[in-house]
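## retry 2 of 3
previous attempt timed out at serialization; input unchanged, resubmitting
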Amino acid sequence: MKKVMPYETASYQFNGRKAIPWILFIMFFGVLNETVFNLSTPKVADQYDLSPAGVSWIITVFVITFSIGTVVYGKLADMFSIRSLITSGLFIYALGAVVGFFLQHWYVAILIGRAIQGVGASAIPALIMVVAARYYKAADRSKLFGVLASTSSFAIGIGPVIGGIVSAYIHWSTLFLLSFFPLLSIRYFRRAFPVEARRTGNLDITGLLMLSISVSAFVFWCTNPSMWWLILLGIVALFAFIWRIRTAANPFVQPELFKSWSYCAGLVTGMLLFVVMAGIPFILPLFLSGVHAFDTDRIGFMLFPGTMSAVVFGTIAGRLTASKGANYVTYIGLLVVAAALLGVVVMMTQWIGITVMLIPLYIGFAFVQTGLWDKMAQVIPPEMMGVGMGFFTLAAQIFGAFGTAGIAQMMDHHWLSRPIIPLLDQGASTSYGNLFIGFSALMIIAWMLFYKTFAGKGRPVLHKRK
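## retry succeeded, writing output
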């Protein structure tokens, strides 16, 4: 048994290079489950005779527990050993697979299994971000964030492909078994990760309950926009959560975190980014199938080059972050994304042109993710690293879902078909072009916010790493 030590000295006992393959291994399977069930929903609906709204729960329950779990595990990482937390998370992840696979004759059990999977899977990105920020030196951390961005992009892109193939040729329930693979890493993490001393702090259950109600209400509203009372419930619970963290002796999230302009600016930048990152996979299939009459195979072929380019350039982004800094990489990424989105607008009638423009788009995504993760790790103090990174992930995911729901609502209105730029009136493609122009505007706003915050001097930050 390794000597128990506080996290300030844990990095000196940790071989970061040997851990990277295992970190990427579990990151792949953790992110994979976010999209692997997407193309299996028609098969699930047929088996249980479900409506589209009913079958969507297989995705919704995972999103809710995954989103809440990221900030919970982040908070726990500020108090307990990551070694123990990651072990428990991977076992919970596998437990959800057991429930879903062996009780697949009962749809309620499928939903319970997916909810448990979300709890377990949330430990992976939440704790890996803390590991990268806590255990790695600045240069190595930047490179790791780049590789993590590549791995995430690959997992998100390949998830629907794996899900579609398994559902078509084996059975959709077999997808649950993918959650067993991360268990192979437990032996390594138990042996290599240091046993950290228990640190002060408590988990504020009341604050967690308020946050959970708010997140659940917002996510349910995203899937059922006609239920307006859900958005009201979410707002009330959110204000109750804010009141709680300002008045509780041991709040779930320290209010000092949100007094940092740097942290808040990074948070907003991440939320704007995820609106676009979540909106693109939602809009493109609708556009390509509805306007160009492409089938799913051809759409997948068009998306593949962009996804693979993100895999390659994520590593390059990590190296640039280590040599040029997080600001430099984030600036480039946001501008590349904004320009690529405008390029897609110009090429709306040419599918080859769209395919080409998706390559710089996904490269830009990889750059922004890498630079932004690294910047957030710089401005969050060590004692708040877990909950700070967890809340960043939670806010980005929820805002992405929120944005997608808003986009779906806008697409039902006729005014969207009027060209924002008269010269770009492209008939049936105009409404989609307007959305891409809007996405580009969001990225320009994010660039201006990020530049104003981090390029100038005198802005307060909570923590500055040496």
